[in-house]
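@channel sequence for tomorrow's demo:
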Amino acid sequence: MIPFSILDLSPVPDGLEVRDALDQSRQMARTAEEHGYKRIWLAEHHGMPGIASAATSVVIGHIGAATSRIRIGSGGVMLPNHSPLVIAEQFGTLEALFPGRVDLGLGRAPGTDMRTARALRRNLEAGAENFPHDIVELQRLLGAPTEDQPILAIPGANSNVPLWLLGSSIYSAHLAAALGLPYAFASHFAPDMLMDAIAIYRERFQPSETLERPHVMVGVMGVAADTDEQAARLFTSSQQQFINLRRNVRGKFPRPVDTMDGLWSDMERMSVEHTLRYAAVGSPSTLEAKLTPFLTETGANELIVSMPIHDIEARLRSVELFAGLPMMKKAL
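structure tokens (generated this afternoon):
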């Protein structure tokens, strides 16, 4: 048994608006808390009409105010888009508002297209190259200030918000191991390097003040429903979204369809199926059969599930059904 968590992109369903998406994220957080999930994380994406979590720390505060026990945080904040000082102040503020509940997951990717990334970062190359140094600076700003420390994060100093490193490649595995940080791999959309990255992270892990031994979280796309057929239909929304990303078609999160036939080419179908090959879609018995070997193979310490489902009632039902699986360790 391992803890289950939820990764929420605050999807904006076709036919609804950003305000509706943020309200649905609040509902999802409350349901996740009721059913014993350990964390709910929001992800930073920009320039995408179907995703409402661009101002990630603000949305984290929104769901923090709607809950009382579940851990809240980022999965992740794309640190090269920001000054470490600004992130320290934002997450120091969240920790002051919701003490002992905040996680800060960090990523290196832009979380958007290159034009928007340039608008965010101004200097793309410098942002990526400085990533390891920015993490160390962020740790320092969130920790106890030294006597000669010239810059203070207020709020932020002494908050000791736990950092996670997120990644989809072996680069992040090396870095998480060297810094002694917990590691979350984005296997929900980047499956190819999962096992290599986990092996590198565990082999090269250096104990730190915050973590004595390796700690791995793995991700899956998930859609649970009462029947396999219902789940497969709900999952077509994600399949359409991935096709749209590849075609650079920007729109709200699609409604499900009865069949994907005619909506994708054979090459697109193979590409999407490969990308989402770890997806857990179906009834509870089907999910158990899919997740049991996956968790055994990875030896994961935690599982985080992204449930982009168009209809909020179906999404909440999926949260409930995943929580009933026998391998889920409930949070107190």
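heads up for whoever presents: The chain has a mean pLDDT of 94.
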